Amino acid sequence: VHPNVSQGCQGGCATCSDYNGCLSCKPRLFFVLERIGMKQIGVCLSSCPSGYYGTRYPDINKCAKCKADCDTCFTRNFCTKCKSGFYLYSGKCLEKCPDGLEANNHTMECTSIVHCETSEWSPWSPCMKKGKTCGFKRGNEVRVREIVQHPSARGNPCPPTTESRKCIVQRKRCQKEGKGKKNREEKRKNSNKDESKETRQESKGRAARRQNREQRENNNKTQPKKRKAPNKEQDLAPVDTAH
C-alpha cells in the first residue's frame, strides 16, 4: 500500500488519501470526481448526482457526466430531463421541436399537436322569445354541443358550441299561472259540488220511492178485498121462449 493511501476511510470509501479523497468505494456505491476550485477529489455515493449517469463494472462503479444540454440522463446518449431552454424528445434535448410537434413549456417536452373535438349537436330547443313559448309569432330556437377535447397551443381552436335560428309558432295567448291555477281549483271544487249534489238527489229519490212502495204495501194489507159486481147485461138478457 502506498504511504498516502489509508485503509480507515470515512463516507463509504474503501481506500482514500488525504489529498485526493476516495480512491475506491465500498460495494454497490458509485465513485465520482468532484471539482473544488482547481482540485478534484473522489467521493462515494449511493446514486449519481444530477448531470451524471451511473455505469457498473466488475471492479468499480462510476458516475459519468451527461451531455452539456442534459440535466439528467440514463446514458450519455439518452437524456431524461433537459436543462433550461431545451425540450426533450426521444432522449435528446432540442432547442426547437420537429415539424408536427409542439413545445410544452410546462413539461419542457416536444408533444403531439392536439386539435379540438366536440360532441354532436343537441336537438333544437322549443321556439321561445324572452323566455316564453307563447304570446308571440316569431322567436328563436337554440341547440348546443360540448367540448370533448380542448386543443393544445398549436391545435385547431374549438368551433362555436351554440347555434340559434329564427322560428315561427302559432300565435296563442299566454295563460297566467296564478289565474290558471285558480280556475283549475274552482273547476275542481264545482265538480265536487255537482257530484255531491247529484249524490244527495239520488239518495233522496231512492228514499222517496222506497217510502211510497212501503206505504202501498201497508194499504193493501189493511183494506178488505172488494167483491166482484154481477154483470147486469147478463141478468137482463131476454129469455128464449120458442121452445
From TrEMBL:
It is found in: Secreted. SMART domains: FU, TSP1. CDD domains: FU. Keywords: Disulfide bond, Glycoprotein, Heparin-binding, Repeat, Secreted, Sensory transduction, Signal, Wnt signaling pathway. InterPro entries: Furin_repeat, Growth_fac_rcpt_cys_sf, R-spondin, Rspo_Fu-CRD_dom, TSP1_rpt, TSP1_rpt_sf, TSP1_spondin_dom. Residues 116-170 form the Spondin-like TSP1 domain. Residues 175-219 have a biased composition (Basic and acidic residues). Interacts with the extracellular domain of FZD8 and LRP6. It however does not form a ternary complex with FZD8 and LRP6. Interacts with WNT1. Binds heparin. Interacts with LGR4, LGR5 and LGR6. This is R-spondin-3. The lineage of its organism: Eukaryota, Metazoa, Chordata, Craniata, Vertebrata. The gene is Rspo3.
